[in-house]
Automatic annotation (TrEMBL):
Protein name as it appears in the record: tRNA(fMet)-specific endonuclease VapC
PIN domain sequence ranges: 3-123
Taxonomic placement: Bacteria, Pseudomonadati, Pseudomonadota, Gammaproteobacteria, Thiotrichales
GO molecular function terms attached to this record: endonuclease activity; hydrolase activity; metal ion binding; RNA nuclease activity
Organism superkingdom: Bacteria
């Protein structure tokens, strides 16, 4: 099974030197090694948006080229809107990108690897699965 790796995990692996975060970097390395890690365009954009230094940006962009973008199709946008409406009707707010991640994960039958607690709330109401280490 493929795993959509969300932005916070990439950020921990690429930038954080804090104690406790190395477990996420190690798990990401294992997923990459096993060729299970996948990415979608909006996550790639979020990762790259954190680098104003053009040299670091280009270096990271080259590394991320290893990962082909998992395509986003028209039905994903429709399902993302449905997921948003379902969650909102249950008192849960979320970002458009989060719901798009959920829609793509649902379509490609992928789990989502994230530390964003919002996804735990989404999972209670929409058909997604979170990746547990």
């Amino acid at each position: 099974m493929k795993i959509i790796v969300d932005t916070p995990i990439w950020s921990y692996a690429l930038r954080s030197k804090k104690k406790g975060f190395e477990i996420y970097a190690q798990e990401l390395e294992a997923l990459i090694h096993d060729q299970k890690a996948i990415i979608i365009g909006p996550i790639r954009q979020e990762i790259l948006s954190g680098y104003s230094d053009i040299n670091k940006f280009e270096q990271l962009n080259r590394k991320l080229h290893y990962f082909e973008n998992t395509p986003i199709v028209d039905s994903d946008y429709i399902n993302a809107a449905k997921f948003s409406n379902i969650c909102r009707s249950n008192g849960i707010q979320g970002s458009h990108i989060d719901y798009l991640i959920c829609a793509v994960a649902h379509r490609v039958k992928s789990k989502i690897f994230t530390t964003d607690k919002d996804f735990t709330n989404y999972e209670k109401h929409i058909p997604i699965e979170l990746y547990e280490q």
